[in-house]
Each structure stands twice: as C-alpha cells, then as structure tokens.
Amino acid sequence: MLSKSDAEKLIHVFVTSRLDYCNSLLIVIIIIIVIYIFLQYMLDMVKICSSLHINIKAQMSTQSQKLRKDLLIKHCAGVNQSLVDFNKIDLTNFIVDDKNGIIYCYVPKVACTNWKRTLLALKHDEPYPNPMSFKGDWVHQRTDVYLFVLKAKLKHYTKFLFVRDPFVRLISAYRAKMLKYDQYFYDGYVRHILQSYEKQSNLPVGYKEAMEKGVHPSFHNFIQYIVDPRTERYAPFEPHWRQMFRMCHPCLVEYDFVGHQETLQEDAQELLKMLKLEGEIKFPPSNKNMTSTDSVKDWFQSVPLEDRRKLYKVYEKDFQLFGYSRPTELLDE
C-alpha cells in the first residue's frame, strides 16, 4: 500500500506531466494559428499583387495602343483619308469576319498564318476548334472582299493588323522564299535574281533539282533586287517583302488595334480580350524558329553600306508609321 508521501509524488508527477503536455499542445496550437494567419496574409498579398500586375499590364497595353495609334495619326497628317481613295487600292489583304464583326489586314511574315487559323476557327460554332487544327497551306486560300461591302463595314467592325520590324521581316521573307522555294518562287524570283546579280547561267529548270544543288541567291543579291529601281517598274513587290503600309493602308483605315510581332503573345491576348473572345479561344504559340531582332546585324554584314541606306529608303515609311527606330548601327557606319 502506497504511503501518503508516495501518493503525493505520483499525483505531482501526473499533474506536472499533464501540464507539460497541455503547455506543449498550446504552443503547437499557437504555432499552427500563427502559420495559418501568415499563409492567409501571403495569399492575400499574392492576390493583391496579381491584381495589380494585371491592372498594370492592362494600363501598359492601353497606353501602348494609344502611342501606336497616335503615331499613325502624326505620320498620316495631311494625307487624304477619305474612303473614296479605296477605289485606288488593292483589298487582297483584308479578311472580314461578319460573325464577330472583325476586319483583319494580314501582313505576310507577321504571324498571319496563325491569325488566319484563329479567324477560321471563330467562324465555327462554339466550342471553337483549336486554330492549329487547320493546315497552314489551306488557310492561305485567297479571299475576295468587295469594295462597296468593305466600306460599309469599316465604320462598324473592329479593325486590326500586326506589324514587325521591317528589316527583320525582310530577313524572314528571304529565309522562307529564297532559301526554301517552290516552282513559282524559283521561276519568278530566284532564277531572275541569280541571272541579274550573280550573272549565273545554265540554272536548273526544276526547283527540286535547284534545291538539291543548293542554288539560291545570297542575302545581298536579294537586297540588290529590292533596291533596284527596275524591279517595281516591272511589277509591284511580292507581298512577302512588299511594304506593310502599302498592303494595309493605315492612313485610310482607322485601326482599332495595332499589334507588334515583338510582343505577339501579349498583344494577341489583349486583342482577344478587347473582342470579348479571351475565354473562348487561345491564340497559337509563336514559331520557335522565328527570326529575331538580335540577328539583324549579322545578316547585314554582307550588304554594303550604300545598299543598306537604299533599303532603308524603300522601307522608311514602315519604320516611321509603326514606331520602329531607324537602325543607326546599320546605316551610320
């Protein structure tokens, strides 16, 4: 039988252990509460920062669009902007989407394949198909837009275009049509350029044989062809290297949105948001093999300074109208 002192010791040990347990439990609970409060605070901060980031991006996009459109107004000042002048222009590059009230002026080598895919997808019923499900060759079929119809719709539809640094676009056109060509480009351009500026003769008749033999103009040959005054006396520039302003006529058409290839994904998202289509369709990802601005100087190393300056004169309006800086590192050596 336990003595009174032993019983008191046991009771003391029991009570002490219970108190220690309760104290430990209380500390754990307090720690959990503190962690919970901290996590809630961090979550709220993330939401606030995310909201601020979205608002800042939206404000920057709005400001960017204002600057781009103001620049067009500035450089188009004094130009007769009456739609009557449409009687004199080619409307080949305008695509009309009546379902969504959209007019798109496409510029070759400025994400036009993916925008054509996107507009084609939008013509279907919801849920819209993936734009990438449409083959590139198929989306480039010619679409005819009648002048009197377009004039009426220009006043009410949302009008947009995407542009690109003119020299980067030119490099992209060279890569796509002078290094990789079909029979049309071989007969119409590659052979002519090589015969005129490289004095080559006895060239293969078929493009496949020419491709196998590595027959193609140098980048300098291509530039020589473009700056040669005789080129456009014979025929207008092919659309892949025709000036952007000559295809989309920004001094005649008051565009609601001017996108840039350099900020393609961000601009595409903002445009779809403006069209209230942001949650309905996703613009395709950019081409990983896209010509970058960083490579321009390397490409132009083989082009004499005089030809570079002539080339700038050919594309000067594109540089000015669409906010691209004069490439002084190429022109002021």
From TrEMBL:
GO terms for cellular component: Golgi membrane. It is a single-pass type II membrane protein. GO terms for biological process: carbohydrate biosynthetic process; proteoglycan biosynthetic process. SUPFAM superfamilies: P-loop containing nucleoside triphosphate hydrolases. Keywords: Carbohydrate metabolism, Glycoprotein, Golgi apparatus, Membrane, Signal-anchor, Transferase, Transmembrane, Transmembrane helix. Its EC number is 2.8.2.-. Signal peptide: none annotated. InterPro entries: Carb_sulfotrans_8-10, P-loop_NTPase, Sulfotransferase. It is found in: Golgi apparatus membrane. The chain crosses the membrane at residues 21-43. GO terms for molecular function: sulfotransferase activity. Pfam families: Sulfotransfer_2 (PF03567). Belongs to the sulfotransferase 2 family. PANTHER family: CARBOHYDRATE SULFOTRANSFERASE, CARBOHYDRATE SULFOTRANSFERASE 12. This is Carbohydrate sulfotransferase. It comes from Oryzias melastigma.
